[in-house]
Every structure is written in structure tokens, then in C-alpha cells.
Amino acid sequence: MKRAVFACFLTLGLLGSVLPAGAAAADQTVQQTHEPSVIYQIAADGTSKKVVAQLPYMHRGAISPSGRYLYAERIGYGKTDPTVPYLYNLQTKKLTQLSGFAKWSPKRDMLYILEKGGIILVNPADGTKSVLVAADPQYPVLDFLVSPDEQYMAFLRKDLESVDHGTATHLYLQHLPTGKMKINDRFAWEPPASRGEEQFYWLPTSKKLFYCTQGGIKELDLPTGLKYVHKLTSFPSYSADMKYRYVMTEKEEYLLDLQTGKKVMLLKQAQPITEGNLSFLSWSPAGHAFAAEKFFRPSNSQDAYCILQYYREAPKYSLPFGGVGASQYSPFLSKKDNVRLIGWAKDGKSFYVADWSSIHFSDFAPEKLSHFYQVIENDSYVASEKY
């Protein structure tokens, strides 16, 4: 999607409270020659699309609830060239390297950071932090996710000294207002194929948690404490108001109306669906509108063409983000253009789209591909990539 390649001098504001051990305390000036990453804010009613940020090249990330901050990651090639996480302030244009991979709080501009196998909470406005889960090299946190009501945080820890692989990974729930936590399940778990794959899904009501195990997806019902094993191949997806559930079958793609049981059909074919379906769906924080990345068709460059769509009231949709040229219907390449939905404004009146740097394999140095495709075991897996 981008056209200009530019050289910029980037000043990193490195906050000591969120820096890795041994990092320089003073600001550093480094030179980068890459395409910039561009962030757009798009009005849900389709009345406007504007650029709200342009920053040095990044590969993925998420906007904060207020839209003031951006969490972003620059992909590395493996253990010796790790993926680096950053925080970008859209108002001050300051880019800060973080001490670990992070996720936003659902409602507030607070950043939960995976640091040295523990979890800390950082306020980006002043850099203050608090330790939520103490670091333990032999019992590292693997992944986490905060509930929509911000009352609980689910996280996985792995006992690296355990001789029983089948129970070495532990599911914790922490009650965030009090800090109390307990183990809710023990199971076998393996790192996902790529770091970006989510290991949890909270129901919008925060009453149920779905999580990945080596044997499949399980469900924890918080009110009863009961656990269920599902035959799902992916997490369920519900609208914020619990009116719809998104469903994808072999020949149908639809929204299931949970009140009437009727299907709102998005795609139906006589043959198995191989293209034209939604590859990623992002629900509005209120109601049941959503934006989606649609798999348009394959390309002959080991990539795929995609389109962004906005559904105010399904099955009708609009095309809020056009591709190259004047036509809004122009598709873009999934990995080469790397255009992604990165979150909603908390009022649900607009959403954000990032035009990241390419993640196509052809843009990475051939001599480093062996590292690029390496998946590192245990807690170190988060610093590697595989596509």
C-alpha cells in the first residue's frame, strides 16, 4: 500500500521503568531506512478516514482504548535477533522500547507487559508500574488476557522442572482488584506456530473463558468453576451485546441470532468455501457492528488478496478502506501490504487500521530464514516467528 521509502533519524525515549536489564538509560539516536507504518482512523458511519500517525516501520500492533497510544512490534528472526516491542505516543510522537510483549487493558490506557516470565502493569502516561505476577525463571508466564470487565486476568504458567508434561502447564485466574489468584486447570500445552496466535478468548460478559490446550479448546465457566472440552478448531466469536455469534462451517458463513436462532447469512456455497470468507473479525465495543478482514482470493506470489469491510447491520456492508487507485474495491496483498485492523475507539464510533511493513518471506534476508522459521520452546517461544 505504501509508496515512499524513507530514511529517518529516530530518537528512542527509553523509560528506565520499562527497559530490559542492561539497556542504556540515555536516549539513543539510530538510523533506519524502511517504509513508514501508517495508522488510520476510520469513522464507523463512513464519513471520514484520516491519518493519525506515521512512525518508523513496524509489523503488527494494537491501539489503546483512547487512541492516544499504539503498542507495536518489529519482527525479528529468532533467538539471536528477537522481535522487539514498542510503545508509541500519537500525541508526542515518542517511541519507547518496552521490556516485554504487551496487551492493552480493555477499557483503559494501561499496558500489561510480559516481563522476564512475570507480568507487570504500566501506566504509559507517567511510566509507573506495579508487579502483578512475580517473575520466576523456572515457572514462567507464557501468555495472558484480561477479561472485558477488567476484573480478572487469565494466564498460563509452565513448570519447567515438572517431570509430568501432561500437567506441567497451569491455568491461573487473578482477581485484579485484590490481586488474589489460583490455579484452575493443569494440562499439556505446546507453543503456537506464531507468537501472534491468541491462546484465550473471553466471552463479552466475562463469565466464560476459552483457552487452548494440547488436546484442544477448553471452556471455564467462572460462576460454577466447571470446565468443558470442546471440539472447536478455533475460538467462538460473539458481539458485545451478545446478540450474534459468528459461525463458519464448510459451506456456510453466518451470524447466528442468539435470541431467535435464525441465521444472518454472509456466504453460502454448494461447494466447500475456499475464498470470499472473513479471515478476521473485530466487533465494536458496543452493540453488534463489526469490521473485518476478508480473504478475497489467492495470489500467485504465495500471498492472498484481502479487503476490509464494515458491517453496521449485517449482511449489508461498506468498504471503508480502499486499495491502490481510486476504486474502494481494490484489494491488497495480505502479507506484502500487511494492512490490518488494530482496534476500536472505546465509544464505538470509529476504528483503526494500520498499514504495517511487509511480512512476506521475500522481504527477509535468505541467510536468516532458518532462524525466522524456528520456534523456541517454553517461555522463549514468544521471541520467535513462523509464518
What can you tell me about this protein's structure?
The model is unreliable at 3-32, 323-327 and 367-387 (pLDDT under 50). Strands 25, 26, 27, 28 and 29 form a 5-stranded antiparallel beta sheet that branches. A 4-stranded antiparallel beta sheet has the order 4-3-31-30. With 387 residues, it is mainly beta. The chain has helices spanning 334-337, 369-372, and strands spanning 6-12, 28-34, 37-43, 49-55, 60-63, 69-74, 84-89, 95-97, 102-104, 111-115, 118-122, 129-133, 141-146, 152-158, 169-175, 181-187, 200-202, 208-213, 216-221, 227-229, 237-238, 244-248, 252-257, 263-268, 278-283, 290-298, 304-313, 316-318, 332-333, 339-344, 350-355. Helix content is 2%, strand content 44%. It is globular and about 50 Å long. It contains 2 helices and 31 strands.
Q: Any descriptors?
A:
387 residues; mainly beta; five-stranded antiparallel β-sheet
Number of strands: 31
Chain-averaged pLDDT: 84
Main beta sheet strand tally, sense and closure: 5 strands, antiparallel
Determine the structural class based on helices, strands and strand pairing.
mainly beta
Shape: globular
Report how far the terminal alpha carbons are from each other.
20 Å
Low-confidence parts lasting 5 or more residues at pLDDT below 50? Answer: 3-32, 323-327, 367-387
Rg measurement, Å: 21 Å
Annotation field: number of helices: 2
The helical percent reads under 10%
Strand content: 35-45%
Write the layout of secondary structure elements.
Elements: E1 6-12, E2 28-34, E3 37-43, E4 49-55, E5 60-63, E6 69-74, E7 84-89, E8 95-97, E9 102-104, E10 111-115, E11 118-122, E12 129-133, E13 141-146, E14 152-158, E15 169-175, E16 181-187, E17 200-202, E18 208-213, E19 216-221, E20 227-229, E21 237-238, E22 244-248, E23 252-257, E24 263-268, E25 278-283, E26 290-298, E27 304-313, E28 316-318, E29 332-333, H1 334-337, E30 339-344, E31 350-355, H2 369-372
Antiparallel strand pairs: 1-2, 3-4, 3-31, 5-6, 6-7, 7-8, 9-10, 10-11, 11-12, 13-14, 14-15, 15-16, 17-18, 18-19, 19-20, 21-22, 22-23, 23-24, 25-26, 26-27, 27-28, 27-29, 30-31
